Amino acid sequence: MARNSSALPARLEIANSLEELVSLVKDEAKDLVSQRIAQFKNFPRHDVSNLFSELSFCVLTANWSAQGGMRAQELIGKGFLTMPPEDLEDALRSVGHRFAYQRARFILENRQRAHLLPLIVNGSLPSPEARSMLVKNFKGIGWKEASHFLRNVGLLDVAILDKHILRLMHHYKLIEDMPKGWTRARYEAHEQLLIPIVQKLHMDLGEMDLYLWYAVKNTVDK
């Protein structure tokens, strides 16, 4: 769906809060969001190769784009876990990744801990602890990327605090300044600001993220 450049300013002018912004786009985006949520909930969380492909997607999207990560994932698939180093880097270059060499190195190093992924997402860990383990054990995975991964494999009780969401939080005066770097405590404190909103909307943080993304981009990526 093509982006309407006038949509975001109009919505921001009409809506007085994040809650109202979601309400403005909910009917329009509901089917797209429902399809994505179903995809996340049906993710095969016991399959190491699928989990590693999704983790690598999140490594790639940092300072790049979800669309680019999806192109890479379509091309490489389960090869993130098995492709020879030179072929992996060439594949990332072929889809236009800005940091093909660095991200290929991250993915190669992460292969050594791929076996941890089912334990992290299928165990008894609450999502904040699972997120912390991801940040601790995998290269190229910060607090936002770990949240992105967890949401995409069906754990919806986390917020993906990317620049678009943070700008909305700043616009609606939930935060005074844009954060410069994350610690666990800082990330969780910002995430907690969204909890009362999702409670009013009767949805998960991961679901609200899709509606807010639609409000910004007029599309629903993953």
Number of strands: 0
Written as H for each helix and E for each strand, in order along the chain, the element string is: HHHHHHHHHHHHH
Q: Average pLDDT across residues? A: 92
The total of helices stands at: 13
Poorly predicted ranges: 1-7
Radius of gyration: 17 Å
Shape: globular
Percent of residues in β-strands: under 5%
Span between N and C termini?
15 Å
**Main structural class:** mainly alpha
> Biggest β-sheet: count, sense, barrel?
none
- Portion of residues in helices? 55-70%
Give a structural overview.
There is one protein chain. The longest helix is centred in the first third of the chain and has 24 residues, at 18-41. This protein has helices at residues 7-14, 18-41, 48-61, 66-76, 85-94, 100-110, 117-122, 127-137, 143-152, 163-171, 184-192, 195-201, 205-217. 64% of the residues lie in helices and 0% in strands. The protein is mainly α and 222 residues long. Helix 2 (18-41) crosses helix 13, helix 3 runs antiparallel to helix 4 and helix 8 (127-137) crosses helix 9. The radius of gyration is 17 Å and the shape is globular.
TL;DR?
This protein has helices at residues 7-14, 18-41, 48-61, 66-76, 85-94, 100-110, 117-122, 127-137, 143-152, 163-171, 184-192, 195-201, 205-217. It is mostly helical. The two termini are 15 Å apart.
Could you list some keywords that capture this structure?
222 residues, mainly alpha, 13 helices
List the helices and strands and how they pair.
Elements: H1 7-14, H2 18-41, H3 48-61, H4 66-76, H5 85-94, H6 100-110, H7 117-122, H8 127-137, H9 143-152, H10 163-171, H11 184-192, H12 195-201, H13 205-217
Helix pairs in contact: 2-12, 2-13, 3-4, 3-9, 5-6, 8-9
